[in-house]
Automatic annotation (TrEMBL):
One GO-annotated biological process of the protein: DNA integration
Record-linked InterPro entries: CB, DNA_brk_join_enz, Integrase-like_cat_sf, Integrase_recombinase_N, SAM-like_dom, Tyrosine_recombinase_XerCD
Species assigned in the record: Halovenus aranensis
Protein name: Core-binding (CB) domain-containing protein
Domain of life from the UniProt record: Archaea
A Pfam match: Phage_int_SAM_5
Length: 420
């Protein structure tokens, strides 16, 4: 086959020549430039390309190109033996868990299948039994997706952030009238940040909304973070962009309403289009404020004079209605790491040393399944009942174990006991 964009025969094209087209096909948003899958696939494809070129692996590994040839690896070099060797490389003693190895290999296998469809390869070598033989068995768990906040952890973390927010708000609202303006602003900033953190923790703890549906994802332009216009505190609902690529309403239970109302009153956003959870990163806000004011015709000297009147740029942004970006999903993880440490919540998990965002969702899933069953939990979690049953199968197993114990006790009570 001759590639229409290059005029080259596909078999002799470098492997990397296909990466961008593949990633665009798999990406999200306009031009296929966004999405977590694209980012993760790009990382694994680059690792595969480096390994194929001899830049990864054992000291004696020289890559898949013949020793007497000086060129990049191309499609002609690929066959099932290459993918078998790569599976062996991933399965080597590098500290990777067996399901992580499976995940990494699947990215490469998906690209291989796409290459067959596009005419780069004649066969899906990565899916052949001999190629996959060195892979460890998949234990059915997804890496990093097993933590679930316990009731004790949820209560301890929410109590901690509630105390922090109450103290900061009280400090701000009880300042003497003659307090210096910048000191008032510093107190307001501390109160705003504590109130934002409390609201976000309560939402993660009680709504079971995915963190990627709630906050900004830099890799997916459609996920810009929820805005105040997306919330209806009177109705107890929030519009979010779901994992299934469509807008949908999520429930806001009672424990979440009060922290959000208090936070909104304190923030007093200039418009409904303001993000509910804006970033407080000073560098990001400084650049945003300077660029926006310059676009409005302000001179640099005037901009700096205006900024000097404020203790923090987020307060200037509020007064001037300069929309900040939402905090990112990574920012939320950093926030939870900080709050977990200061709250001294007891953590016992092999992967996470803090209460990760997905643990709040999974913890609520545990509560709902135990209280109302799989059907109700599936609706609340925005998942299929089949998926929820699979994820929370340990609950059903425990309940069946109790049934079995009860049955055995019943049988034992009816069985004549041997005489002494």
């Amino acid at each position: 086959m001759i590639d229409e964009t290059t005029g080259q025969e596909s078999a002799v094209q470098p492997l990397r020549s296909s990466f961008e087209r593949y990633l665009q096909d798999k990406g999200k948003g306009r031009g296929g430039d966004g999405g977590n899958y694209r980012r993760n696939a790009a990382r694994e494809l680059e690792r595969f390309a480096e390994w194929a070129a001899g830049e990864r692996g054992a000291d004696d590994w020289t890559g898949i190109v013949p020793d007497n040839v000086d060129r990049e690896p191309n499609f002609k070099d690929l066959d099932e033996r290459v993918f078998r060797e790569y599976a062996r490389h991933l399965s080597g003693d590098r500290g990777l868990k067996q399901n992580t190895v499976q995940t990494y290999y699947r990215y490469i296998s998906a690209w291989c299948g796409w290459c067959v469809n596009e005419g780069y390869l004649k066969a899906h070598y990565a899916q052949r039994a001999s190629a996959m033989a060195p892979l460890p068995e998949d234990d059915g768990r997804k890496p990093g997706d097993q933590q679930a906040w316990t009731s004790e952890q949820r209560h301890e973390l929410t109590r901690h952030v509630d105390e922090q927010a109450r103290d900061a708000i009280e400090t701000y609202t009880t300042l003497p009238e003659d307090t210096d303006l910048l000191d008032k602003q510093r107190a307001r900033y501390a109160a705003l940040k504590a109130a934002r953190d409390r609201a976000l923790v309560f939402v993660l703890a009680y709504t079971a909304v995915r963190v990627g549906e709630l906050l900004r994802d830099p890799n997916d332009p459609r996920r810009r973070g929820v805005r105040w216009e997306d919330l209806s505190l009177d109705d107890g609902s929030m519009d979010v962009y779901r994992k299934k690529q469509q807008w949908d309403a999520a429930s806001l239970p009672d424990p979440v309403i009060s922290p959000l109302r208090s936070y909104r009153q304190l923030m007093d956003p200039p418009t409904e289009r303001w993000p509910v959870f804006p970033t407080f990163d000073q560098r990001t806000l400084a650049e945003l404020v300077q660029e926006e004011l310059a676009d409005r015709g302000e001179q640099s000297e005037a901009i700096e004079e205006l900024r000097d009147e404020y203790a923090r740029d987020i307060l200037l942004a509020l007064d001037e209605d300069i929309h900040p970006l939402s905090i990112t999903t990574d920012g939320a993880r950093s926030m939870l790491q900080r709050l977990t440490e200061t709250s001294e919540v007891d953590i016992d998990h092999p992967k996470h040393d803090y209460l990760a965002p997905h643990g709040g969702r999974r913890g609520m899933g545990e509560v709902l399944v135990r209280a109302f069953g799989y059907t109700v939990a599936a609706r609340y979690l925005d998942n299929s009942e089949e998926m929820v049953r699979e994820r929370y199968s340990h609950i059903e197993a425990g309940e069946l174990g109790d049934v079995a114990t009860e049955a055995l006790n019943e049988i034992d009570s009816l069985t004549p006991q041997p005489s002494e």
